[in-house]
## 1
Amino acid sequence: MIDLCTDYLGLQLKSPLVVSSSPLSESVENILRLEEAGAAAVVLASIFEEQLALESKALDHDLSRGTESFAESLSYFPAYDDYLQGQDAYLNRLHRAKSRASIPIIASLNGASAGGWVRFAKEIEQAGADALELNTYSLATGFLKTSAMIEEGIVDLVYRVKQSTSIPVAVKLSPQYTSIPHLARQLDDAGADALVLFNRFYQPDFDIENLNVIPRLTLSRPEELLLRLHWVAVLYGHLRAELAVTGGVHSAEDVLKSIMAGAQVAMAASALLKHGTSHLTTMQIDLTRWMEEHEYQSIRQMRGSLSRRSVPDSSAFERGNYIRTLSSYTLRQKDALPRPG
Ligand SMILES: Cc1cc2nc3c(=O)[nH]c(=O)nc-3n(C[C@H](O)[C@H](O)[C@H](O)COP(=O)(O)O)c2cc1C
């Protein structure tokens, strides 16, 4: 009997297959469908700092404090009226999901600056969330802000959220930091219970006819997993915080790679949006079959087996690999340079 169990954020999960924050969890009915299809836990779609601050008495304070991107970002929010009722609706959905589903429900707070809104973490806890994912998505557009200032801001935010709640807190990060290991260590020290690697960077497209910049969300491709595997493999074994992969998990093989890099769980959104909820069942069947064929008894047994500290030649994760990768490329016939003459 194959044991797919894994621990994550103090929770005993039946498998490493977690549904990441997305519209997939926008209704309780869909959460139940995900559970039935094999999800071991679901991360709710986020509630945003901007939504919370709108409702909060802390708004004036936040604005005068100079959260520079805040006022600007408000103007970009769609469904502005919906956001005004955001808090109650969010807590209500969380509460209903908890009372009807038997898998853990992880709430998601999405914000980038430490303001009064972080107190919402307590309300999330009181509504019954098993854990909280804090998405720190932000873009550095200020010319006077150094990378150290930005990282300090994130660490401070995590510290404050941890102070506001006693449920476990996972921190979802973007990959664009100068030193991911250094930031990871600081977040670990600030009390992060897990790091979720990584956010995708959504670049807007240009409409050259109407001179507009338009938001564009494309679903992920499996190749995006490689960036996550690299950093999970580098961090594994060096932190108290657990590691989770999000981004490019499309198949059972991707889940296996994530676990072997050192993750506790592998999260999926795009693959489920593309292929439907039943894709979770396929992934679980394929996962079990692969483990049987390769004589693995448990997920725990394979965790970290391809991490930087476990592989015999760790240069695969270092500069040496860069040189090897470049020189490993051989020109195919059709790419070959034309012969002179
Ligand atoms: C339509 C859509 C909505 C999303 N909404 C959120 C969100 O509210 N909060 C969040 O943290 N991530 C959100 N994400 C990001 C996903 O949780 C996930 O991290 C990302 O899509 C990478 O995983 P994937 O390759 O499995 O899609 C969203 C993704 C999609 C496709």
## 2
Amino acid sequence: MAYRIHLETLDIDFICQANQNVLECLISSGKKGIQVGCRGGGCGVCRVEVVDGEYCARPMSKAHIDDQSIGNRQVLACCIKPKSDLSLKVLGKIASSIKRKYQL
Ligand code: FES
């Protein structure tokens, strides 16, 4: 099953398979200039806010995502997989690389 991921920062959509994490899908969408960190939940570069939609998450480092962040639906894109279409805002260092690349 595949879901549509809307990235509010760039106003773009990309497709993510249910068995892929959101960061993998964003990178494979072909958008250049996406800063890639550890891809394993350790660096916090890929922090996003899930504005809309459902997801499943694997455990994330408390150094980057504390309980309050989880309550605010702020997660690491490399640690979540979609369970529905999602709408995201980028928050971590990935946001500055995207804004710089696309002059937002
Ligand atoms: S890429 Fe490092 S936490 Fe996601």
